[in-house]
Amino acid sequence: MPVEERIIIRLMAKPSEESADDLMAWFCKAFDLASTSQDLEPTMFKEIVSASASGSGVTSKELNDRLEIPRTTVIYHLNRFIGSGLVVRKGTRYFLRSTDMESTIEELQADMLREFDRMLEFAEKFDDIVAGDALDRRGERKKIEGKRSVRARSGKRR
User: Fold this and answer.
1) Percent over 90 (pLDDT), the chain
2) 62/122 same-domain check
3) Are residues 49 and 116 in the same domain?
């Protein structure tokens, strides 16, 4: 079973400056990963991105040492980054999901489009059930069941 992701995207104004730090902070806010009290998330994310760019990734112990914060705090934030889909864990090391930020965002976009396709499929089934229930109250259930079974056998969608 795949890891469950919870992708939250906040609509954020473009950063006034486009330094690496500003963009890192913007990504953290856009993915609802930034706390209001500190700059911990952007700093941690920057460490992960830098370590990923070099191909080495980073361990929770390395983040603990570099950022001088409790390891439990590091693990908490790493799990949030993983849950958002931005970061993956390989053994004891953490990496950006893809080779660079652009590719990571493209992969997240593809995941979201796939999930919306699934949701549309379920919405169609839901609409068929609701329509069938409405017709059932009028005594016309057999027509809907016949339509549904023909579509199911042929594999065709409306």
Assistant:
1) 51
2) no
3) no
